[in-house]
Amino acid sequence: MSATAYAAIADPTRRGLLRLVAERERTAGELASAFTISRPAVSRHLRVLREAGLVRARPRARERVYTLEPAPLAEVDDWLASIRGYWEPRLNALERHLDERAKETR
After folding, report:
1. Burial of 57 (0-12, 13-18, 19+ CB in 10 A)
2. pLDDT tens, residue by residue, 10-56
3. What is the rounded CA–CA span in Å between residue 41 and residue 67?
4. Do residues 67 and 50 make contact, with C-beta atoms less than 8 angstroms apart?
5. Which are the contacts of 42, defined by CB distance < 8 A and separation ≥ 6?
6. Of 7, 31, 33, 2, which Cα lies nearest the Cα of 19?
């Protein structure tokens, strides 16, 4: 996956847009109405997602319909899986520690 795709998913608005198109294809207007930011701002976010290969737009009458392109996200999941082994034991140890502290304070 390109650095552009990682940068694209770093933004919470773009992650929100991805969540919406992951549910079903949506028009640009539907996507814009789900956010409090301006329509031009949503359009800019959608352009970043298109350029990163995360969504595809197709014309339908006077609208653009957006669909998810899952392949780049599978690459992100693969990368996360590669580092998950590093974090899971640490998070489990933290959970055990917090459980022990909670027992001590009771």
Report:
1. middle
2. 999 999 999 999 999 999 999 999 999 999 999 999 999 999 999 99
3. 19
4. no
5. 13, 17, 28, 31, 32, 35
6. 31
